[in-house]
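Q: My labmate handed me this sequence with no annotations at all. I'd like to see what the chain might look like in three dimensions before we decide whether it's worth expressing. Could you predict it?
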Amino acid sequence: MSILYISTQLCKWSWWKTLVSGEEMAARCLPYVCFIVLLILLRICMEAQAGLLGPTPDEEVEALGEIARKLGKKDWKFSKDPCLNDSTSSYNNSVSCNCHYPGGVCHIELMSFTGNNLSGPIPNYLGNITTLEYLSIENNLFSGTVPPELGNLDNLETLILSANNLIGELPATLTRLNKLRELICGNNFTRKLPDFFRSWKQLEKLETQGSGLNGPIPASISVLKDLTDLRISDLHGEGSDFLPLMNMRHMKELKLSSCNISGEIPAYIPNMTHLGKLDLSFNRLEKEIPEFEGLKNLTNMYLTSNLLTGDIPNWIRNSNQYDFCTKIFQNFARGLFSLLYFL
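A: Here is what I predict for the chain of 343 residues:
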């Protein structure tokens, strides 16, 4: 029996007229009542046909099942909808959902497998949950390469891959993640730092510490004007001059440690007035330390093991606001001071 037929029969039933006073009012209101009923029934039919037996679409539950099988996770109970607010749900702390979609439909937006000792390759089925905004698999035993299917997660804002045994290179399909704001990817990668970081125009945090990636740092990274946190360390291979970061006025933490960077500390660093932490240690920086007196928020600075020369700057000697100077400022330098520790 069709939805349209049922709705038509409902409209013919005489009891509808008891909902209003008078035959004339009933005649005027009846078409509107029928139309509303029809919309409700059509909605129910569409959701049933879509397989929405619970608030979470079947294809997302299926993808979770495949991920669980790939990872050997036996603690997820697929008899329960992953997006139901159930205190006995086994998905707690692993899956978070947004249930504010039309019709009460829920979509998975956060997955975190942090510190679960999971091993094997990253399941490519993760790329099927396209509503994901946050994905973290850090501090596990994942191996192999990063699956290119992760480039399908076009709503992803945070991707954390660090502290695993991943190898190879980051797939170019990740350039499609045009909403990405945070990438942390330290592992055992073996290729050069990719030039496609520039694709993520909204990126705010980029961290590749101890990643196994090779230098040089691509100069194109300078287009990421929204960066507030840039941490790159322990690069192998080819070195480079200091990056042109003068447009990153919102930078709060800048770490370029052991990156084989040559030349002088750039004069634009004092223009980063929000800067709180600066680590340029273990490079080949030379000449004198610039005037940083305008950096009122600076609390941590590391210049260890460079080729800096000259006297200790007066802004370090005389300014009481730089409390960090008496605690952690240290530098190996060749020139007028060869070893400097402020303890």
